[in-house]
Structures are given as structure tokens and as C-alpha cells.
Amino acid sequence: MLTALSIRDFVLIRKLDLEPSHGLTTLTGETGAGKSIILDALGQCLGRPAEKRFVRTGAACACVTAEFTLYPRHRIWLVLSDHGVHADPAEALTLKRVIRTDGPARAFINDQIVGAGFLADVGERLVEVHGQHAASSLMRPSVHQNLLDRFAGADRQLAAYRATWAALSEAKESRLALEAALEEAHASRAWLTDAVSELDALAAEPGEAARLAEHRAALLQSGKLVEAAAEALDLLDVAVVDALGRAARSLEGVSSLWRGRRGAAAHAAEALDRAVIEVGEAASALQALTTEIERDDAALEAVDERLQALRAAGRKHGIEPDLLPDVANRLRARLDLVEADDERVSAARLAETEAAAAWRSASDKLSKVRKASARQLERAIETELKPLKLDKLTVRVRVEPLDSPGPNGAEHVEFEVETNPGAGFGPLKSVASGGELARFSLALKCALAEQGEAGIMVFDEADHGVGGAVAAAVGARLAELAELRQVFAVTHSPQVAASGVAQWRVSKASGRGRGGGVTVRGLEKGERTEEIARMLSGAQTTPEARAAAERLLEGP
Predict the structure, then answer these.
(1) What share of the chain is helix, strand, coil (3-state, %, to 5)?
(2) Tens digits of per-residue pLDDT, 166-205?
């Protein structure tokens, strides 16, 4: 049960500490007094989205703390342990939410920081909050399936169904993709065969085109070098050597005739002899170079032919020539796919068949649970409707197969009602009146409460649209429900307010805007009489209203 609720700087509340009791506690007060603020504050501890607007004007942060006392075997202790949150079942469990104006909100469990999502999961297991719009949500058939599954406790069957549905969807997509690829491959089989044959014959190697281009450039450069060497060799012809020899011999004759200058002539002659030798060596070196790097026209022609073939193939396939080996591998794989289509398609179809069988098994189990639980839910709701003065209303939970199953099941679930015998069943949204819908919603919640693990229930105006004896019946049912669970009910009905074992009055202090503040007081017996009399008579409390309030508090 919820044993304490502490609220600080939350909207209009500066400071508020509440200590709820067992059973049914009703919250009353004039319209706009701030009853919804109490529920908003509790919702923050239960993991609802935090908003900075909740922080009271002038405060830096808002803080809400809720303390729970739970029995030792409650499943929440195992959930906390699995998430590494230290908690002792012998001690109270504390949920806390801090909303800051200058940063993100923080969530705590037993003063340990946790994520908002985990806090919401824990809060959902502890408290069920049925808001003012719960009845209107029943107008949407899309929520009926979830309600039936919750009543049936079909979490395990639904999880199995969803897993097999996902596996079947994946297997089907794989099979369709394979068949589409095969269809495309079959349509282009002749082209694939020719293309693979051509590429196999070409036998392109990775990076081959780049290497051939470099080799070709080198061959072209060698040709230019041969031409330059030949030109230099032509200039060093025999005439140059002969001229140098004759010059040397002439100097020898001069030196014999002109003895006084013999030394200079001899030096010149020696230089000419060396020149003849160097020119001869240069000519020999040029001749050797020409022989060594003589342009190989045949090699260049072969390189050009191979390079052109690679480039032509690249243009044909719209790629760079160096990527031809990759293209060959891909086309070969597509051709292999065509040639091995029976085996691969058979394997894909078998996988889909097996996935479909697993899905049908899970679907049958879920359908069986839903259909059986639908009858049980009908009886449970009708049992709840009788004390709510709707004993003539008959409920039918229609479960019909869908033409196209989906990820949440193969059935369409919708609640239908017959308001009077023989009137015929119709959709809940088009048959039930506002008051009937509110009581139907309460009956459904009471029926579902037997299956839920939350030990605390909060009802926000469950008596909406009803009064008199019907409101008294609503209050009596809430009180009965509170014998097994701790129940809080925000109400404007004096009959419901009188049904509680405790009553809180919510009021707004004087002041303007957000600065007025909200207070909550637990009422003693005499104060309860005055509050219920006010609810009965309005602005001016009359003796008759007080007498009526006392009769309501005394009970039937």
C-alpha cells in the first residue's frame, strides 16, 4: 500500500505530506481546488513524463516522493533485483522524482538513480490510475483487444505470437526477395552466360589495367630515349674521329720542326689522343645503350591491344577496367543462382513453411485463450454491472478472425452491448449512453482488477455522469474493491465520498494565480458531515443536507 506521499514546490503546492490509510480514501473539494494536482504529483513518482511547468513559480525544482509497503513475495522485488536496484522486502520502497527548471528531471528508487522508463515500469506494477477519460477510451475498439489480453493474462501467448509473426515475416521477405532475384536472373540468363564467358576469357586481374598503362608509358619513353641516343651517335661519326687523328699527327710534325716549342705541341697532341679515345668510348656506350633499350614495337603493340580490350569491357559494363574481376564474380554468382535455383528456393520455401507452422501454433494458442477469456470477461463484467444498476445490460466480447492477421493477433476484438433484452447487440460506442459508459468502464476496471498485480488503484471521477442511487452503487462497489486493495477516488458525488473509510478535502488557499497554494486535510467525522452536506446542498449548507449527509455516512 501507499503509506506516504510527500510533495514539494509542485504547481500550487508548496509543501504537503500525506499518510494514506487502508481501504477507500475519497478526495473531495470544489471544482478547481486542485484535486488533479495531487494525481499529477503522484503520476510523477509513477514515471509519467516530467514537465518544467510542474515546478512552482519561484522555486528551482519540484520534488515528489512516494513510499510503499509491499508484501515480501511481490514480484516487484525480483524486478528491482534484475535491474541492480538494492531493495529490502522488509523495508519500505521509495519512489522519487525531482523536476528541475535548469536541467533534466531525475528519477530515484530507494535513493538510487534510475531511468524514467524503468520508473514507469515499476510504477505501473504498483499503482493503476484510471483517469477521467478512461470511459471515453472504451469508445475505441482498438483498445478492446489489449483489455481482453490483460484480463486473460495472455502476456506469454502474445509474446510467442509476436515472435513467430516476426520470424514468419522475415522468412516470407527472404523467399520473395530470392524469387524476385531468380526471376530477374532467369530473364537475363542468356546475357549472363555470354557476359561471364567473355569475362572468363578476358581473365582480367585486379589492378591489371593500371599496371598496363604504366608499362605502356614506360615503353613510349624508351622509344624517345633510343631516338636521342641514335641522334648523338650519328653526330659522333667516323669523320670526327679522323679529324681528331689528323690534328694529332699535324702537331707531331710541328713539334719536330719547332724544337723550341716541343713541350706545348706534345701536350696538345696528348690531349687530342685522349679526345680520340673518349669519343670512341662515348660512341661505344651509345651503341650499347641503343641495343639495350631499343624500342620493342611488338611489346608495345601487345600492351595496347590488351589495354584496349580491358577498357572496352569496362565501358560495356559501365565501370573502371580495374573493377572487372569484381563484376565477373557478381555475374558468376547470379548465373550460379539460376543454375542452383531449385535448391535455394526449396530451402527458402521450407524455412517459410516451418515459420508459418510455428506462427499458426502460436496463433491458435492465443486465439484459444482469447475466446475462452472472452466468455469469462462477459460474465465478470455482467456480475459487476448488477450492483451498478445495469442488470438489464448484456455484454458480448466479440472475437472474430481477421482477413489479414497482424503482429498483435489474428482476431478482431470488440465489446458489444445490448441495453434491453431483444434490442439487439451493437458496438459499445453507439449503444451506451454517457452514464452507462461510465458504469461499464468501472465494471470493466473492477473485473480487470482481479487479474492485475497492482495493489493500489486510483479513480478520477469514476462517478462521472451519474447520481443518486447509481452514484451510491458506484461508491459501494469502490468500497468493496477496497477490501482487497488500497483505493483512492477523486469524486464530486456525495454518495461516493461517504463510501470511503477516509476522506480528504482539497482546497485552494486565498491568493492570485499560482501563488495561492493548495492544502489537503483529512476530515474527522463531523467535518465529513459538513463536507458531504456542502456537496449535497451547494453554497449554503442546510439542516436537511446535514441530516442527509449523516445518513449517507451511516451507510445502508
Answers:
(1) 60, 15, 25
(2) 999 999 999 998 888 777 767 777 787 888 888 888 888 8
